[in-house]
Amino acid sequence: xxxxxxxxxxxxxxxxxxxxxxxxxxxxxxxxxxxxxxxxxxxxxxxxxxxxxxxxxxxxxxxxxxxxxxxxxxxx
Length: 76
Ligand SMILES: [Zn+2]
What we know:
With 76 residues, the chain is of the alpha+beta class. The protein is built from two helices and four strands; from the N terminus they run H-E-E-E-E-H. The chain has helices at residues 2-5, 64-75; strands at 15-16, 25-29, 35-38, 55-61. The radius of gyration is 14 Å and the shape is elongated. The N and C termini lie far apart (31 Å). Bound molecules: zinc ion.
């Protein structure tokens, strides 16, 4: 998946609970590997599996223009 490859570098920086989300994407908690979609300007939550503060690892970007197109189809 070409769109995935160029984003892989971001995985080296991990995010923590309560930090601001800088990019709409799927993230996985480092402790339980729970995958969650966070939106830009959200805050990283507690791990949904163990409910503790955790590190979040970048998994993959979410291509928002596809979401927008789908929303238009649903609301039309
Ligand atoms: Zn956990």
